[in-house]
Every structure is written in structure tokens, then in C-alpha cells.
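Example record

The entry below shows one chain as it appears in the dataset: sequence first, then C-alpha cells.
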Amino acid sequence: MEDKYQIHKFSKKLLQKPVFSHLEKYLKKDFSNPKLAPISINVDLITACNYQCPHCIDKDVINTGRMLDFIYVKDLIKKWSENGLKSVILIGGGEPTIYPHFEEVVKFLKDLNLQIGIVSNGTGNKKIENIAGLLTEKDWARFSIDAGSNETFQKFHAPRVPFALEDILESSQRIHETNPKLQLGYSFLIVGSDKNAGGVKLSNNIKEIESAVRQAKKHGFTYFSAKPFINPEGTRATEMSVQDLQEIREEIKKARELEDDNFKVIESVNLLCFYDEELKRAMQNQPKICHAQFFRLVVMPAGVYQCSLWRGFDNARIIDANKPVTDEYFQELHENRIKVLESFNAREICKNVSCLYAPLNYWVEGLRPEGADPISDFNDYFL
């Protein structure tokens, strides 16, 4: 089921020879090395944003005026890179390009030969353009745009300083021209009818999907990614009316006519769940232990967390950040990492979430230590 749509292939990623030993150690419960790294991490460099999006899923953790200490970032990631870390996604909890050392961080990560993903709102594209030449065809940048017109763009994001959709599009095209090999994504959060967040009624943007796809292709993006609105409050459930879903499918169908060898339209798995009941059941059916959290973590100013969806929540928190990265720090991180792994009840906590990692978790659950074999490396370590 996990590879049905051939989008993520998480199980195959864990079977690649350069990371296979991580899987073996986990299956054997060999936790003897306290510095054993996750394979992939999300890094929230700063909890500040120059947008005021009412639908923001991280609204409770942004704009606290906190950032990761640059020395902490370098010390932690360098040691982890020596112990199996393969990819870093600079993302969320704020706008990463606001971080004063953003370009230095990217250069540092590439010096360590790590794969890099960047999730940005696009307002700091000049900084991304400056480092675009360092990135390879396996790296990527994705911009949260969510609109096909400037009017909707302004309603969705309410920039704190004047910024127009065209500014994002033109700067993205310059990035593409600087490095045509870089994967460039136009992210579109679909908000249907009768959606509210924080007491604010959100604009329906379904009818802008086709125009947004045209803008994406015109300005050098390599893919357009559509995903459904996630309620930032309560259980973080994803819901869609029958009418909205029908309109979305019609818009996506028209958008696919623009696809070619250099441009793709991608529907997120939690959107595909609305089309496929079997997939939805699989994505909302978790075992008690989320095994994926052993292979991927989130590092943010408030601490190290086991999941990007639950960043900022006490039951997902492992350890403080911005501390000296000593042997004692790694020992505490390691011990708490195992405690959270065992105590976080994914079956109950995530029962309303269409989770990308649910099929992976059951795949791991069914493996025996001697039952997995490595496969050839296809050089994709993002989890």
C-alpha cells in the first residue's frame, strides 16, 4: 500500500545500502550508540514569520522570537552526519530564510554532503538564489503559495510587509534559471467551502488550481503540489465535502493537461485518501509505536521532537535545543528518544490523521531482523 502511488517509497529508502544498517539496528533493538543519528531531520531554524496566515498549523509555535543557535546547529548536525544522517529539510515553525545565518547553514550542510530540502514562503528567494548553485538535482525547494491570483494570495498570507504573488513567481524563475537542475515546487493548500481557523472564515481557492498550475509552469517550477487543508486545532483532522472534492478533481484533471516531461502535477497522499477508501483506511490505521520517528526527527528552538505534525507538543518532545553538544547531551537525547518512542501512542493520538508513515510503520512492524535485504542505492534519503 505504501508504494501504491509511487510518491514516497519510504520502505525502499530504508533498504538502500547506505542506510540499511540503521534499519538492522532498529529491528535488533541495538541502541548501544547514543550518537546514532536519524536518517532525515526537519530543522526549524527560527520561530518567526513575515506572514500572518490564519490557517497556519504552527501558529502556536511561531513568533516567539526564538531561533536555533548557529553553533548548536553545526555541532549537532556535524556529529549526526558522522553517524548516519543523510538529509536535512529546512522548514516550518516560521520562515527559514529569515534566519540570519540561512545561507551559511546551507553551505555548511552541503560541505557535509547532505541532501537538502527547503520549504519557504518565497519572500526570501534572493537568499535561495544566492545558494542555488550549491544544490544538486537531488535537492529541492518548495514554496507555499496557495493561490493563483494576488487577491487570494493576500487573503491567505497577509504579508507583514508589502509582497505580491508576482514577486514570488519572478524570484522563483530566477532561481530556476540559476540552477535548472534544482527541483522547484509550487505548494498549494486547498481550502474548500466553510473552512474556519482561529475564528476566521477562510477563502475558497479551489477554482484557482488551474491558474496556479499555469503560473507554476510558466515560471520554471518543476512540479505543482496540491494538498488539503488541515485543521490547525484539535485533532488536526482533514475533511472535505463531496462537492468540494468533485470540484477539486475537475480542476486537477484540467491541470494535468499541462504536464510534460519537465513539469508534473502531484496530489498529496492525504488528498488521495479522499479518492481511495482503502488508502484512507491504511493511512489512518497506526500501530501503537510510530517506528518512523526513529529514522526522522524535528529540531527547533523549543527542542528536539519526534514528529513534525506534533512539534511543540509535550508528549512529542525529546530534549532541549541550544545546549552544548557534549557526550552527556547525546546520552540524554538518546535515552529520551527511546522513551518517547515507547510512550507515544500513535494508534490513539494519530487516529484522525491521514499519516504518510502509517504503512511504513506496519511494514517495519512485520519485519524480522533477518528478514530484510538491502537494495541498490537510488540516492534519495528524505523521510
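Notes for this example: DSSP finds 14 helices and twelve strands in the chain. The two ends are 17 Å apart (CA to CA).
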